[in-house]
Amino acid sequence: MAASAERRPNSSGIARLSIGQVLASLQDEFPDLAHSKLHYLESEGLITPERTPAGYRKYTRDDVDRLMFVLRAQRDRFWPLKVIKEHLFEHGVDSEVTSIASRPGPTSTIQAVRLDRRGLARRAAVEEGFLEELEQYGLLAEGLLFYGSAELEIVTSARDLAEEGLHPRHLVMLRTSAEREAHMIGSVARPRSRSGDSAARGEAEDFARDLGESMIALHSAVLRTKLRDS
Hints:
3 domains; two-stranded antiparallel ribbon; DNA-binding; DNA-bd_dom_put_sf; MerR family transcriptional regulator
């Protein structure tokens, strides 16, 4: 077992954080992170915070670094927890997620971004009016202060299609299909979070993510076969 995969001792003089402090410190990068997610990752052995005599969790800097690696591997590479655990066992957190060779998965090359509206338009090389058009047809969420990699991919893909004559008004069926798929996945994942156990809610979130990845892979494969046969 690689030495870096062991739980490293806490650096002297670094305070241990409560779960609330950890969530607050990661709020900007992971605004949807909740207690349930941390409890689930702990139950799966991916993070191991210390416990006070009263049972409260306390996180060291190493714990937070490990947590950030896990969250980024899921978000940026769509790695399943099994793959993340294997990587941590072999390498620890000493390599950046974005520098690691992509694992299988149709969304494995997505990189993390955080852009304001003007930055999104500039990065995607479109006018802000194009963003308004995407919002009008429900392809881009309205009222966001910041946009991530998913929104950037929506805008750039829609731009490429528009250049070939398929404008946002032609893509409503794609939005409708995605909404139906999300509802289907939610109906399967939701029962896993009804136990009232916060770890179960975190498990349901990860289960839905994995189902979504499989749905994307299936959709891509079916589309390729239809294009081949057309």
